Amino acid sequence: MTQYRLTSRKMPILDTYPKESRVSVYFPKDCPNTCPFCTSREDYRKWGVNPYKVMQFLAALPTDMKHIVTITGGEPASDINMLRDMIHVLPPTADVYINTTALTNTFDRLKELVGEESRVQGIAVSRHGANIADDKLILHGIVEDDAFKDVPCGIRINAVVPDVFDADYFRNIMERWRPIFCQRPNVYKTGLTFRFDYNKCNFGNLHLLDTPEIKALMSVPDVQYAGQSISDYAHTMLYNYRGMRIRYHRCLPGVVVKIGDTISLRELVVYPDGFVATDWDRTNVGLDWYMSNVFHNGEE
Ligand code: SF4
User: Fold this and answer.
1) Which residue range is the domain that position 8 belongs to?
2) If you take atom 3 of ligand 1, which residue's CA is the nearest one?
3) What are the tens digits of pLDDT across the range 270-293?
4) Is 300 within a domain?
5) Residue 265 counted as domain residue
């Protein structure tokens, strides 16, 4: 008989206590930008948007437990008023993270907002190149790197490791961001994440410690190992590099993990039309269990 459990971020065996929920919510409005390699526009067209339904779900999150809410896109900064409303309807026990492309026409207003809203813990921004000219080939209208110096919350820069890499690839990207991050040494949750391509990740390679990526990263002078965290669906190596925090993150493409008869759930995904799922492919396996056991302290 299938059993469900809530996966922990760090312990592969134990459930997370005290419970906290994780909710990733697509911004319920399509992005007006025109990046050539954007995959979001097609998703928004397919799913449609229903801001009212999304807000209704967020407003109904239980107030007696912690929630980690990530607002993603599309581009959440494309309508700052709607973004503010989403933050305001959440219970006071929610910490908020925002995924943004950091565009020139909205980034100043986003910075103001995250400075005003104390529940925003951090923003995450994808930048994959060794310099901004490389990033501009795939992203339109992005801010210069200097714009990140004074963001009044944590920042995570994410770079997906390409098929071909060497120690210089890692060093060049770390050196790109070092001038920014080393001016923010005390800002919690600030750092650079190298991400293994989700689509190439599976149970066979999820927890390997001697991959070519790790060897190349560790061969860069001044990179020091600082720990790791493991879970059913992810493995993160932690490093320091000349005053910067570095993560190397490997993660399965989905977060619903089946081991034997047990299905491990991690987060809810709220789509822009208000549809709620337990994974990024609109799967809602275990949703009833999640709603009654995680949100309402039912028997497990
Ligand atoms: S900013 Fe993001 S969501 Fe908008 S078009 Fe560019 S890649 Fe797509």
Assistant:
1) 3-294
2) 74
3) 999 999 999 999 999 999 999 988
4) no
5) yes
**Cβ(79) to ligand 1 under 6 A?**
no
The backbone torsions φ and ψ at residue 11, rounded to the nearest 5 degrees and listed phi first, read -110, 120
**Contact by Cβ (8 Å): 27, 271:** no
Q: Cα torsion at 200, 121, 290, 293 (round to 10°)?
A: 140
Hey, whose CA ends up nearest to atom 6 of ligand 1? 35
Distance CA 93, CA 248 (A): 29
Contact (CB, 8 A) for 13 and 232: no
Pairing of strands 191-195, 244-251: parallel
Query: For position 300, what pLDDT does the model report?
Result: 44
How far apart CA 292 and CA 300 sit, in angstroms, is 10
**Total domain count for the chain?**
1
- CA–CA separation, 20 and 18 (whole Å): 7
Task: Give pTM, 2 decimals.
Answer: 0.93
Q: What is the CATH number of the domain that holds 174?
A: 3.20.20.70
For residue 299, being part of any structural domain is answered with: no
Residues in contact with 298: Cβ distance below 8 Å, sequence separation at least 6, in sequence order: 292
Which protein residue's CA is at the shortest distance from atom 7 of ligand 1? 38
Task: Quick: pLDDT tens for 70-122.
Answer: 999 889 999 999 999 999 999 999 999 999 999 999 999 999 999 999 999 99
Distance CA 123, CA 102 (A): 9
Spatial contact of 224 and 212, defined as CB atoms under 8 Å apart: no
Task: Choose between 94 and 65: higher pLDDT.
Answer: 94
Q: Cα angle vertex 87, ends 232, 17, to 5°?
A: 35
Q: Is the CB of 75 under 6 A from ligand 1?
A: yes
Q: Which H, E and C letters describe 102-168, residue by residue? A: CECCCHHHHHHHHHHCCCEEEEEEECCCCCHHHHHCCCCCECCHHHHCCCCCEEEEEEECCCCCCHH
